[in-house]
Amino acid sequence: MILKYFSIPEFDRTGNVKTLYTNSRDIAWNFEDEKSYENYTALGNQLGISPENMVKTKQMHTADVRIVTRENGGEGILRPLDENHPYDGLITNEKNFLLCTVEADCVPVYFYDPVKNVIAMVHSGWKGTVKKISECTIKKMNSVFNCEPENILIAIGPHICKDCYEVGEDVFQEFSSSFDKDELAKIFVPKNQEKYLLNLQEAVKLTVIKNGVPEKNFFTTDVCTYHSQIEGYSFCSYRRTKSPTQRMLTAIMMI
Prior knowledge:
6-stranded mixed beta sheet; 4-stranded mixed beta sheet; 8 helices; alpha+beta; 13 strands
């Protein structure tokens, strides 16, 4: 079994990290999914690691980011995660240790500090973006590993784009509590008196730049989960399919 995945070229060409995101063909990545172990095993064979050297988030749209080591290997993959302690981001300085999140329209955010050799993988839905989980990640990388924001590379994986993501006044008001007026004008485009188009990518970008990451260190796939295709492959989109279980895997590993 060979899994088809795509990578973040700006990260992978460094030769020090491996990034990936899957598509709508392989959709079982949560522990409780029937084929998840089969998928992780197949992926591990392609990457040259075992599922024991992978770890996955317990996502509940928090701004919590967790430091993980080899001792956490297999969590969310070989054994279930603790329902009482959710977190939406992972940070490590371990090599050959795959950090995994899953998405179906939310924003996957990849972090790599080539100076301190630290990586992070973050799930940033609109709630996590309001809570500025990317800012929390940068601050934790700095406090634990002394990573300087100006050295951190950040990439945005496939997510629902600004032209497809319609939201209501309630979401706009939530963002108003975390972003100023000028920022809101860049994040939202009014569609009518009740609806807006939301640019999650811009919200994440504004957050990381405000926290000291140079704009030249920010990259994006420009792939929309709702409408994009690459080589004939589409991507998991809850807005498009309404499936509660179909997810794409997004992951990063130092090599």
